[in-house]
Design brief:
The complex is a heterodimer of chains A (200) and B (230). Chain A is α+β, with helices and mostly antiparallel strands and 200 residues long. Chain A has seven helices and six strands; from the N terminus they run βαββαββαααβαα. In chain B, strand 5 and strand 6 form a beta hairpin. The chains are: A alpha+beta (200), B alpha/beta (230). At the A-B interface, helix 1 of A face helix 5 of B.
């Protein structure tokens, strides 16, 4: 079974924000909730780099490990999803996530934050596939239609790759070999390091 | 597919590196670069060959002896001022160059794109990019509101974005905003239900007089300005 991953080639990202806008449009994500964002470092200076960041659907997802109500789970293709009916909005996942992926509709110091929302890899949620409940809580389910996430499909420079981890890693390796340089794929080793095998 | 068709698919005037197609085209009096009829010497233009002319509002007074603009013109009923503006020196009172440009999220004046929540959310604030050296001199901190004034008396209130992306002495403003007029929010004047999600000063409020002598396109890219804390 394929293991789906995201890979962002920081040498190619031009900070056009098409991934973020496409995501918001596809899933009707409300103002203030950002499932995918483009982060630019050294903005305006030589060596400026941009990278598109969302939930990376980690191997050993730290959000799932800390969730007190165990609402976060991983599907058979490695996509990390969550159940909004179980979520209590405690925000632990937000603290655990190395990518700042979990988003909350409300902010207050002592009140509830509301149900957590994050990138679903366009794979919907635990509701019946393509049901109204799934669409209203989690957005579209493109994976069930045999499509890849809309952000990667929309990427104008093919910086953001989605798909079988082995295939997109191979594409990236070939790119780096051909052009002779590679800043690396930010977040890849954080998200997909095999923690059961710590030899190197 | 015939062999000739196959050959045409493989090679055309754009991809023929041997130059054969181009030579045949030239021999028959055709321009080998498509339909273009570009002229190197445009005899009916004010400058038949493009040459540098300093903008009407310029900080480089020293260049005017060699690169001054045209004399004032009159096209039928339409007067267009050139030298009578350029000869006045505004550069001591307005020492910075102001230019304008585009943001990836918005299109044109931005009224349509700023009314799309997915796009408006990414650029919520009209701003001016200022070099750190100029910002320090004017005592402006990043994100603070500034007044930007230009020689014809316009004053716009925008947020400061301090970045080395613009060189010292240059200020950049995006032209996608509208709805504010010299510090005042005019959203109440939009027809009901048509106010875009984000409003801001229009960059064209600040830009100054000046027209292209052929097309009469307005000058939006070069003028002078001064900045101060709001």
């Amino acid at each position: 079974m394929a293991r789906m991953k995201f890979l962002c080639d920081a040498d190619r990202c031009i900070e056009c924000n098409a991934c973020s806008v496409a995501c918001k449009n596809e899933h009707q994500v409300p103002w203030g909730i950002v499932r995918r964002r483009v982060v630019t470092i050294n903005d305006g200076q030589p060596g400026e780099k941009s990278v598109s960041i969302a939930c990376m659907h980690c191997n050993d997802a730290p959000c799932a490990a800390v969730c007190p109500v165990s609402c976060i789970y991983q599907t058979d293709i490695g996509v990390v999803l969550h159940n909004k009916d179980t979520c209590i909005g405690c925000g632990y996942c937000f603290y655990a996530c190395p990518f700042g992926a979990p988003q909350f509709p409300r902010t207050s110091n002592f009140g509830t934050r509301g149900k957590m929302d994050k990138c679903t890899y366009c794979a919907g949620g635990p509701e019946v596939t393509h049901s109204d409940a799934e669409r209203s809580k989690y957005g579209q389910n493109r994976i069930a239609e045999g499509k890849l996430p809309i952000c990667a499909e929309m990427c104008s420079t093919r910086s953001l790759l989605a798909g079988d981890g082995e295939i997109i890693a191979q594409i990236y390796k070939e790119r780096v070999a051909r052009r002779g340089y590679g800043e690396g794929a930010p977040g890849w080793s954080t998200a997909y390091a095999d923690k059961r095998n710590v030899r190197s | 597919m015939s062999e000739a068709q196959q050959r045409l698919r493989e090679i055309n005037w754009k991809t023929d590196l041997s130059g054969g197609i181009q030579r045949v085209a030239i021999a028959h009096g055709l321009a080998p670069f498509g339909n273009g009829k570009a002229r190197c010497n445009v005899w009916n233009y004010p400058d038949p060959v493009p040459k540098h002319r300093e903008p009407l509002y310029t900080p480089r007074r020293d260049l005017l002896t060699q690169y001054r603009t045209y004399d004032d013109k009159r096209h039928w009923r339409l007067p267009a001022l050139f030298w009578s503006i350029q000869q006045k020196d505004f550069s001591t009172q307005f020492p910075l160059v102001l230019t304008s440009g585009r943001l990836v999220e918005f299109e044109g004046g931005g009224d349509e794109t700023r009314a799309i929540a997915w796009l408006a959310e990414f650029q919520q604030q009209m701003f001016a990019e200022i070099n750190p050296a100029d910002a320090q001199r004017a005592g402006i901190s990043n994100g603070a509101f500034i007044w930007l004034a230009t020689p014809e008396g316009a004053r716009v209130k925008v947020a400061a974005l301090i970045t080395p992306r613009v060189g010292p002495g240059t200020v950049f403003m995006p032209f996608h905003f509208a709805g504010w007029w010299q510090g005042k929010d005019l959203s109440s004047r939009y027809p009901q239900g048509t106010v875009p999600y984000v409003l801001g000063e229009s960059a064209n409020t600040a830009t100054t007089y000046g027209y292209d002598p052929v097309t009469y396109m307005q000058e939006t890219k070069t003028t002078l300005c001064q900045i101060e804390r709001a």
